[in-house]
Amino acid sequence: MRAIRAGVVLLFLLVLAPSAHAATGTYLRLAHLAPGTSGVDILLTPKAGGTSVLTKGVDYGDLLDYRRVEAGDYTVEWRPLGADPESKPLLSTTVHATQGRAYTVAGLGTTDKLSLKVLDDDVTLPQAGKARLRMINAAPGSTSADLVRDGSLLIQQAVFAEPTLYALVDPGSSSLQVTPRGASPVTLVANLEASGVYTVVVLELDGKVTASIRADAKSSEVVPGGALETGFGGTADGPGGTSWPVVPFAAVLVCACVLWSRRDRTAS
After folding, report:
1. Which residues are 91's β-sheet partners?
2. 4 pLDDT more than 70
3. Of the four listed, 3, 52, 155, 219, which is most buried by Cβ atoms within 10 Å?
């Protein structure tokens, strides 16, 4: 009987163990980072067949939430706001989404050099005790921009419409300063968590350069809401953890353990 109880306890612990599948999912998100281009409707279509997803009214500066998808090939199409989804798109590209990877499909560049780029978002676990950070310069008045943290240069010459490589940084709360060429510096206060992955987005709104920082992943799990962080770090957690449907089952296992224990004492 003791062996049975031990087995039940082991099963109970396995049930409550955090789910690992979230870290191995495939994710896509859409972004409009093309200044001077009006709002668009974006159509995401799986090439293997299935339901297309139409996102309406995506404006310059919008970095949408990650969407979990099946691995495979997808078509992303941009159309003018309110256009027929069957009409010829303004832009189109194909995403080859691999299992366990995350991607951002971003419209980048000015109206005369507009393109859709598929960014490979590295949401894997950074080196122990580190965070990972990159910058996307989408401000047309700044041909390049630097990112400085507490006086130390993290990213140098982030070229307009070209996402930078990732930089490994120490975690902690500190001041980040975006110094665009030809514009005033922009200061952010952000809490970079160990094992976090972040993207700094630089925009130009009404002739003024602005910047924000986004938490893309934490502990190798994509942040589903992807909240923008313009102050101290956000509190959104990535997918995973114990799902509510298993809790009643776990309670039943506990009750069974208690009953068996009482029966043993009665029998003895």
Report:
1. 78
2. no
3. 155
